[in-house]
Amino acid sequence: SIDSQFMERTVTLENGQTQRIEGWLKHRYANIQGSVSHCFYRATRLKPKDYIQAWIYHLMGSGQTTYLIGWDDDKYPVCHSFSPVDISYAYKHLANLISAYRKCRNQPSALWLDAAWAYITAEKNPEQSAQDALNDAILGKKNHQTGERYAVSGEIQLLTRGQEVHNYVNQQFRLLADTIISPIIDGKEKAQL
Predict the structure, then answer these.
(1) ∠ CA 182-72-127, rounded to 5°
(2) pLDDT tens digits along 42-66
(3) Crossing angle for the helix pair 130-139 and 113-123, nearest 10 degrees?
């Protein structure tokens, strides 16, 4: 690990306002050639929030590669990387994240991370139905032998309270999923451990 780096970015939001972001970028490592990368790791299954954390670091240090190491859904080690991006690309996506954050400070967010992640991942995979993935994320995964669903977290049960899944896939959900989640899924590449 090398020293943390203080980063400061000023992004222009869609409404024309500017927002300054600053902080210390940790998790920085140098390789033999001297190039610096961000590296995050978890000794457990990677969750959407892990990808978002790595993505924000990646956008802040846009000229560097970011690695995320953990376990996949089958509990095998996995490593994903984000290649360096252009500064204008980074600013655009930082602005999208800030705008979404600001909106959910004043009203409930239509974006459920786990559901949106499952939905966008399935939408990009022709072998899986996006609606089935969303049902699994909100209602619980289906046991194909018994037809029953495994229980989902108490948080999801409390939020849904028996509502139909299609009530959650509205225009705002799709817009946020496409704006926030889709670029992360598109940007991650499988890397070798």
Answers:
(1) 55
(2) 899 999 999 999 999 899 887 789 9
(3) 160
Long-range contacts of 135-142 (CB under 8 A, 24+ apart): 135/165, 137/112, 138/112, 138/165, 138/168, 139/165
101-144 pLDDT, tens digit per residue, is 888 888 777 777 888 888 888 888 777 777 777 777 766 777 76
What are the tokens at 73?
């859904």
- pTM, whole model, 2 decimals? 0.80
**CA triplet 141, 142, 145: central angle to 5 degrees?**
145
Contact yes or no for 48/117 (Cβ under 8 A): yes
Residue type, position 94, single letter: L
Q: Which of 59, 40, 61, 37 is nearest to 49 (CA)?
A: 40
DSSP 22-54: EEEE--EEE-TT--EEEEEEEEEE--HHHHHHH
Q: Which residues contact 122 (CB under 8 A, 6 or more apart)?
A: 128, 129, 130, 132, 133, 134
End-to-end CA distance of the chain: 17
